[in-house]
Amino acid sequence: MLSVYDVHKRFDRLEVLRGVSLDVKKGEVVVVIGPSGSGKSTLLRCINCLEKIDAGEVRFEEEIVGMLPGKHGLKEDSRKNIARLRSSMGMVFQQFNLFPHMTVLENVIEGPVTVKRMNRSEAVAIADRLLDKVGLQDKRDVYPNQLSGGQKQRVAIARALAMEPRMMLFDEPTSALDPELVGGVLAVMKELAEEGMTMIVVTHEMGFAREVGDRVIFMDEGKIVESGSPEEIFSRPCEERTRCFLNSIL
Ligand code: ADP
Ligand code: MG
After folding, report:
1. Overall average pLDDT of the 78-93 stretch
2. Which residue's alpha carbon is nearest to atom 14 within ligand 1?
3. Ligand 1 pocket member 99 (CB < 6 A)
4. Are the CB atoms for 216 and 230 separated by under 8 Å?
5. Which residues partner with 214 through β-bridges?
6. At 162, is the pLDDT very low, low, confident or very high (cuts 50, 70, 90)?
7. What is the pLDDT, as a whole number, of residue 73?
8. Which residue owns the Cα nearest ligand 1 atom 22?
9. Pair 48, 89: CB distance under 8 Å
10. Closest ligand 1 atom, residue 42 Cα
11. What letter would DSSP give residue 146?
């Protein structure tokens, strides 16, 4: 479904991604771990075109996206194509990024109404179903500042799902949460995975990675150092760097 091939990305002189290749199959849940600064967020941002790549290729459902091969290296895809791609990939960030001046319901229908030009009543019906799914039907008319971090993040997930994405990207969705709020968010993500959603999840929640992940990828210094089943990576990592990292976080 997604194929990332030899992607390079630099910010000025800092090479943040140094040849990353990754394939994700439909329905697969890929968990990405690695030290701070290793390029995990940048990788997700390159996948959904929030960043331009300098070399390599990203394909989503067979189509090259974001940066296309041109006569003189890569050239940027049309804004229309990028917008279309973004709406088929939902992204959830560590910092919820809800619109503070909109109610929960308005947050969830915003994308469908403004981007997909869905009529309001249809969008509301979808939003109500999704808020029910994330356990927040009773909060539909409150503002984000009246929610806990965990509730905000569940709204953010509902908002992403309202665009009917074919793939979801999660960037440390529980890292900003108080410990007691983490479980509710992970439960929603687990349910999504069980329904067959294709997902890339940057997280250090090892329980989630083991239980829900089909594959775990360890990144360090802009490269994928090691990739394998959760069992392989957590119980018998091949690389010393993976072992060191796991020891440091467990
Ligand atoms: P991770 O998510 O694994 O912690 P990031 O992808 O956020 O890592 O960052 C990788 C490196 O790229 C870091 O050194 C970070 O400071 C740098 N970086 C990320 N975004 C930018 C940016 N927009 N401009 C300059 N440097 C950046
Ligand atoms: Mg990050």
Report:
1. 88
2. 37
3. no
4. yes
5. none
6. very high
7. 82
8. 11
9. yes
10. 6
11. G
